[in-house]
């Protein structure tokens, strides 16, 4: 009997009690996981530089970049889902599109309307880089070849009585271009690979991961692309990002080309890298979608001649002229973004076996949107990458996905992490398999460099290396000692000063937080406001004199035994890089850098500035280039908006427009 009862208990324990124990243990484990996850998200130490415990003889990089979290607590409020752009919501599917250099009338349109009569009007370059003109109208039918790259199409259906008007973009067959490419000899040391660079305005490395997750996943996992984790900007804005990439030089080192400046000339004479590629038998193509804020048109004089074999500027100028007929972000039933990708695609369709230098830069989704609309690019860009891979175009193409800088304005930028993300934009490369086999040393060095400090100057040096492998070191990187090809191993000892990155932009500095009532902070902030007022002094009749409203934050940098940039003369308000030389001496014995964030009156402008304090002279100095406007200025500078665009961030007009 006792034996039977004991056996019954043994039988009942696992059936009843053990189920409860198992449930409680599972619940405990889940709570632990949630607790650890929440603790990780709220551990602010992850937002600071992480010092790893390494063996005594381990070599450590001179630049230790901050370990930023993709889902940091202070960033979470900016990660929101937005309603997708629906270009087909109020419009019939586009009647006309371009495919492989020909006009096509869609099947849906032909089925619905039966008979369709169409003509096109060419969109041509006007008298300068800011105007367009229209050509003569010409009838066309389905399958007719393009005679011009861009046109306005008008169609009517005698069957239904409906009309259709839209703009189309494509690539017209060019016999002389084919002849030039076929007759141009390749350089003996040239790699012969096509370059496709697709960029988006104002997207940090982490923002790309947050808002373009499908693209990021496909690029890094499926295509095995590599992201440059230490890519650091060298100046403020798109122009300061692209000039070093495309010319290897800073704006100040190039001819004066700013609007309204004495002796200013167009940018045609700049040594753009696409000229080098063209000399090596490449077809060149460039598109930028917002003509009024173009890289070389917002402050600069633009081009007297079309700079690349194919250029989309006239298309967007015409679209802006008739913008009232389009829904936001749309070109009829197609998004502007997809239309831009399709135009890039046409170069690969029309010239599949020819080397190309292709640059596409998109502003509309991310320039002023705080990234809410950037999410709309994710599916379209991923699909485009899949097309390139499926059709074999990536077999001979270096694919670059990139941005110029992180967010420059708004609430995200005002956070500490936002400040650092501005300095660390997304930049990545994907090389074809044959490159890895033909150039194993270059590819190995590239993978090493992906974890080290890099800059726009290095991208230019890499392009030059592609055209003349291992022969262009002195020309590309030796002259100013700042640009290093990514195919050469970048030294661990490299500092921001070595790379031509000023302290204001360097993301691998060590900063100490200060009390905003500190006397040195007070002097530093007054120097900032004084510098801004000097910048607008020439227009004091229109621009208000600013005063300090409040100090928001202050930090101090003092990196012992670091190389620092000693400037031969100050930078200017356009963000142009000052002339400098690298001085080999211990920084700590000479002074400190303060970085302060202030709000000014009138207008509540917020500025972040880096100020240098000299130990010897006990003075504070702030260069124009080291001041960033971090909130939107809107119409505040309307009185000088067009005449002096370089003063827009700093001028609060005395007479404000009524809202």
UniProtKB/TrEMBL annotation:
Coiled coil: none annotated. InterPro entries: Alkaline_phosphatase_core_sf, DUF229. PANTHER family: FI08016P-RELATED. CDD domains: ALP_like. The chain crosses the membrane at residues 21-41. Gene3D superfamilies: Alkaline Phosphatase, subunit A. Keywords: Membrane, Transmembrane, Transmembrane helix. GO terms for cellular component: extracellular space. It comes from the Eukaryota. Pfam families: DUF229. This is Uncharacterized protein LOC106173381. Signal peptide: none annotated.
């Amino acid at each position: 009997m006792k034996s039977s009862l004991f056996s019954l208990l043994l039988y009942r324990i696992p059936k009843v009690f053990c189920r409860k124990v198992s449930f409680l243990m599972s619940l405990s484990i889940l709570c632990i996981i949630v607790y650890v996850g929440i603790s990780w998200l709220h551990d602010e130490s992850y937002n600071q530089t992480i010092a790893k415990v390494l063996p005594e003889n381990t070599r450590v990089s001179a630049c230790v970049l901050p370990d930023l979290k993709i889902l940091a607590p202070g960033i979470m409020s900016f990660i929101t889902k937005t309603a997708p752009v629906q270009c087909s919501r109020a419009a019939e599917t586009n009647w006309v599109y371009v495919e492989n250099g020909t006009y096509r009338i869609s099947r849906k349109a032909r089925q619905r309307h039966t008979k369709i009569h169409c003509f096109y009007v060419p969109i041509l370059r006007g008298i300068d880089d800011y105007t367009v003109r229209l050509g003569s109208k010409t009838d066309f039918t389905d399958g007719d070849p393009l005679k011009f790259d861009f046109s306005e199409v008008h169609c009517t259906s005698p069957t239904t009585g409906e009309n259709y008007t839209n703009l189309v973009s494509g690539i017209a067959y060019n016999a002389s271009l084919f002849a030039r490419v076929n007759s141009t000899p390749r350089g003996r040391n040239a790699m012969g690979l096509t370059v496709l660079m697709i960029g988006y305005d104002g997207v940090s490395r982490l923002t790309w991961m947050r808002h373009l997750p499908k693209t990021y996943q496909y690029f890094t996992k499926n295509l095995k692309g590599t992201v440059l984790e230490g890519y650091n900007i060298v100046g403020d804005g798109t122009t300061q990002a692209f000039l070093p990439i495309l010319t290897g030089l800073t704006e100040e080192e190039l001819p004066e080309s700013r609007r309204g400046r004495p002796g200013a000339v167009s940018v045609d004479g700049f040594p753009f890298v696409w000229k080098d590629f063209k000399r090596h038998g490449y077809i060149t193509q460039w598109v930028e979608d917002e003509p009024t804020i173009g890289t070389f048109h917002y402050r600069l004089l633009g081009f007297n001649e079309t700079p690349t074999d194919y250029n989309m500027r006239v298309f967007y100028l015409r679209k802006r002229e008739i913008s009232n007929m389009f829904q936001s972000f749309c070109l009829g039933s197609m998004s502007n973004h997809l239309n831009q990708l399709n135009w890039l695609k046409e170069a690969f369709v029309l010239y599949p076996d020819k080397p190309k230098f292709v640059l596409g830069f998109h502003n509309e989704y991310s320039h002023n949107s705080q990234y809410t609309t950037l999410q709309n690019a994710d599916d379209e860009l991923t699909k485009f990458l899949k097309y390139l891979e499926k059709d074999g175009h990536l077999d001979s193409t270096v694919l670059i996905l990139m941005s110029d800088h992180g967010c420059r304005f708004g609430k995200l930028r005002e956070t500490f992490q936002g400040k650092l993300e501005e300095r660390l934009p997304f930049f990545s490369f994907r090389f074809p398999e044959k490159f890895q086999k033909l150039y194993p040393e270059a590819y190995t060095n590239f993978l090493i460099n992906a974890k080290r400090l890099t800059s726009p100057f290095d991208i230019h040096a890499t392009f030059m290396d592609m055209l003349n492998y291992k022969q262009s070191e002195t020309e590309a990187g030796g002259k100013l000692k700042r640009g290093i090809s990514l195919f050469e191993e970048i030294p661990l000892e490299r500092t921001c000063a070595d790379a031509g990155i000023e302290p204001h932009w360097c993301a691998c500095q060590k900063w100490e937080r200060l009390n905003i009532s500190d006397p040195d902070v007070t002097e530093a902030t007054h120097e900032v406001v004084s510098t801004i007022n000097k910048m607008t002094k020439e227009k004091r009749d229109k621009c208000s004199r600013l005063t300090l409203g409040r100090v928001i934050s202050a930090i101090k940098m003092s990196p012992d035994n670091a190389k620092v940039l000693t400037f031969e003369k100050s930078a200017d308000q356009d963000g142009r890089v000052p002339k400098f030389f690298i001085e080999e001496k211990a920084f700590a014995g000479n002074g400190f850098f303060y970085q302060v964030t202030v709000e000014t009156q009138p207008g509540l402008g917020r500025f972040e500035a880096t100020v240098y304090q000299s130990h010897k002279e006990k003075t504070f100095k702030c260069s124009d280039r080291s001041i960033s406007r971090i909130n939107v200025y809107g119409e505040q500078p309307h009185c000088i908006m067009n005449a002096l665009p370089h003063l827009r961030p700093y001028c609060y007009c005395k007479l404000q427009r009524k809202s």
